[in-house]
Amino acid sequence: MRRIPLLILLCTSIQIILVAALTGPAAAAQATKPVARQADNATLGKAILTNTRGRTLYSLSAETKGRFICTGACASTWRPLTVPTGVKPTGPVKLGTIERSDGKTQVTFKGRPLYSFSGDSKAGDVNGEGIKDVGTWHAAVTGKAAPQPEPQPQPEPPYPY
User: Fold this and answer.
1) Number of domains in the chain
2) 19 vs 16, 50, 95, CA distance in Å?
């Protein structure tokens, strides 16, 4: 009879150890997803954020402190950069998330929600820069663009004729 309680105690201890192992730091690790890159933009002369396909990412100056203005039809022109719930976005700079009113999780940079612009047709376009609406749209700037090297002077030919 004494062996049965010991066996139950042993099984319970193993269960506790297994539960602790499964709910520790490894289980708490959040999934991550690369969503942004940094690119030097010659038009702006600045380093900006782009999505993984090279399209410029923008923010709206009036969207601060969790306030969303770009909803409904606006969100079809200015496409929110979203990630699945529980996924941490990664990129060349620190990114965050905020929940939209539609329940989607939108990526943020410096607290501002990020969008791509439907008027940009290829990587490097910044057609949305400076558009005024209920605020002003700006590319998400991460810094100054890398300086372009000066062209090297070409030697003159020894016989100009």
Assistant:
1) 1
2) 5, 42, 32
Q: Which residue reads 């439907």 in tokens?
A: 118
Enumerate helices (H) and strands (E) in the chain, giving the number of each: 3, 13
Tokens of 103: 């329940």
% of the chain surpassing 90 pLDDT: 65
Tell me which residue range forms the domain holding 129: 32-144
> Is 159 inside any structural domain?
no
Which tokens go with 105?
Answer: 């999780």
| 45 Cα distance to chain centroid | 21
Residue 116 lies in a domain: yes
Encode burial over 110-129: b for 16+ CB neighbours within 10 A, e otherwise: eebbbbbbeebeeeebbebb
User: pTM, whole model, 2 decimals?
Assistant: 0.74
Q: What are phi and psi of 117, to 5 degrees?
A: -110, 130
Residue 87 lies in a domain: yes
Residue pLDDT, tens place only, 4-63: 554 444 444 444 343 344 444 544 457 999 999 999 999 999 999 999 999 999 999 999
